[in-house]
């Protein structure tokens, strides 16, 4: 008997899962509320760690995996922890984190390019303009209802509709997503030959985590392309920098507790947010002020930070969830997209195997059991990193800075501790 699978949401996890299922010949459809492939474009880089790379390699057809590799950034510098005066605390050399196998390596990719790769070749599978409003059960069949009045019947519905998932709200109404009280302001500085001369190599060659003495933090990461054209898509008039996936840039994100910001923060536009960050880092090294000041106002935005709360096990049924729809996390460890890709890989494997055994419900149950373990562990780790990033505890921050300096001074110990940096 053919199992019809409907995926609600065309984001990273949902599209990766659809690619894998389609490759296996399984009847799958994706229902995305955006009206076109270009409507939901987001312009910041995303870090793909070995978990994410393995999932993409397994789920994507060979030609799309190769296209993904061709659109990743070429920057290969070390990951650095630095002070606000741009003095090194610890440098994690690339040999501690890189792999000769692209399927188990780290990659930097534009979210736009990643979305384009994942949606390529899904004609007849990916349906746009489908705003999900709810589902109902008719025996063993789930009927999904959309705002345009259409419906689709499925034997298994997978909510991949992001942090504000409507599938989750109906399926697990008690699942909470809460405001952490942390707010980030992020931007992108174009990386050209001219701007490269004005920025130090530490900011243009690799990611950096800036740890001032207390109260805030700044993350920077270059995304450098080697002249590779973007994936083909509909012609669209992109906003400069923010929606361009063919130009190099340095992404930055300043984060602090909401109490450090003015009360009118939500009303500030890009130029005003940029000016605010410059005021907050007025006594930092001039390189950081150059990075922020050189970011076009349309590329600067405010990002409130939310996180999911762990959910008790639920009875397995013919509805399940992946990615941010179930375990939305803060961005402070760069593992949200990778965890969604890990979900897609695991669920795809299970469903492909279930086609042989005919035990779809068992396949979903195994996925949910394992996903809850690693997914909510990632949520907890990410929130802990977020709290540390903006900690007002001066003594604790001083201790952390000292620890990083100690690791830097004892290379064998640093190698032992950080050999798997970023894999979790």
Write up what this structure looks like.
With 424 residues, the chain is of the alpha/beta class. It folds into two domains: 5-74 and 110-177 and 308-388, FAD/NAD(P)-binding domain; 180-306 and 391-406, FAD/NAD(P)-binding domain (3-Layer(bba) Sandwich). It has 14 helices and 17 strands. Helix 1 packs parallel to helix 11 and helix 2 (50-59) runs parallel beside helix 11. Mean pLDDT is 89; it is low at 37-42, 227-243 and 420-424.
Offer a few descriptive terms:
FAD binding, 2 domains, 14 helices, FAD/NAD-bd_sf, FAD/NAD(P)-binding domain, Monooxygenase FAD-binding protein, disordered C terminus, globular, alpha/beta, 424 residues, five-stranded parallel sheet, FAD-bd
Q: Within the largest sheet, what's the order of strands?
A: 5-4-13-14-15-12-16
Q: Which fold does the CATH topology of the largest domain refer to?
A: FAD/NAD(P)-binding domain
Number of strands: 17
Assess the beta-strand content as a share of residues.
15-25%
Summarize model confidence as the mean pLDDT: 89
- Major sheet characteristics: 7 strands, mixed
Give the C-alpha Rg: 22 Å
The CATH superfamily label of the largest domain reads FAD/NAD(P)-binding domain
End-to-end distance, in Å? 38 Å
